[in-house]
Write a structure and sequence with these properties.
This protein is mainly alpha-helical. Helices cover about 55% and strands about 10% of the residues. The strands form 2 sheets. Strands 1-2-3 form a 3-stranded antiparallel sheet. It has a two-stranded antiparallel ribbon with strand order 4-5.
């Protein structure tokens, strides 16, 4: 994509948002920051926004929203990756360490978040596919021996816990925001699959997860007529039987499928 177009997009967001990037959700701002970082634009202002979410409450991590009631993997993961790619390995490692200490379950998968309930810290045990992706990306970006070994373990537990049965097909989270979750994970699994610092077994497992998921979504596609044109529609779920299609098509589910297909293409080319 033309860098000028990306800069105009960021400028448009800034103007339409009242001459600021900030909104109520630190995770949304983290995703925008990662996109801007890839485009090489707007990173400094966005970094200042993200750093407001990082506090010592609950021992570290980032709040999910500006109401500062819930520390979440959804924000902490992408912020840690953004900072690692900015060269702030110390803060990135500290955030990743907090995720491991506070929100990792018995297998090492990252749970959703932590909040106070009747004055007592309580961890929300939901495990979503997308929360595993940016944290895996941070491990690879930091790149020391301990994090590379952790990345290998993380790929293995994703393959064991977040797939359908004995297959390598990743589970999905239906529609709405969840319709995008597994597409996000495939992006970072593709990085692992093409990272020569990882063992052959870990790379192979990561690649199989990506390609099996992409193949599943591709096989489940259907053709529809839209305003006289034939268009391809992807299923919202990676069921192993008959794919469920709904008449109303959500952008999140279609973007999820395209992200998985893009990740599979990267694996095939050997570039994450």
């Amino acid at each position: 994509m033309d860098d000028r177009l990306i800069r105009r997009q960021l400028a448009g967001i800034y103007v339409c948002n009242g001459f600021r990037f900030r909104n109520r959700y630190f995770d949304d701002m983290a995703w925008l920051s990662l996109a801007a970082q890839r485009a090489g634009s707007g990173r400094v202002r966005l970094r200042r926004v993200l750093e407001r979410g990082i506090t010592d409450d609950f021992g570290g991590g980032s709040f999910w929203r500006t109401d500062r009631r819930y520390k979440a993997t959804a924000a902490t993961g992408p912020i840690s990756l953004f900072l690692a790619r900015e060269g702030d390995d110390l803060t990135a490692a500290r955030l990743l360490g907090w995720l491991r200490t506070v929100l990792a379950d018995e297998d090492g998968l990252f749970r959703d978040g932590i909040r106070l309930v009747d004055g007592v810290p309580e961890v929300n045990g939901w495990v979503f596919t997308y929360n595993q992706g940016p944290a895996l990306g941070t491990m690879l970006e930091l790149g020391d021996d301990a994090n590379l070994e952790a990345a290998e373990r993380h790929v293995a537990v994703v393959a064991r816990r977040l797939t359908h049965g004995e297959s390598r097909v990743l589970i999905t989270h239906r529609g709405g925001d969840g319709g995008l979750f597994t597409g996000i994970l495939t992006r970072y699994l593709a990085l692992a699959a093409t990272d020569r610092r990882l063992s052959g077994k870990a790379r192979s497992t990561a690649g199989e997860l990506v390609t099996a998921t992409a193949d599943n979504l591709w096989r489940g596609r259907e053709r529809r007529l839209r305003q006289g044109r034939s268009v391809t529609v992807f299923p919202q779920d990676t069921t192993l039987g008959v794919h469920e299609h709904r008449w109303t098509v959500e952008l999140s589910t279609q973007l999820q499928a395209w992200m998985a297909l893009e990740a599979a293409a990267c694996v095939a080319r050997g570039t994450g």
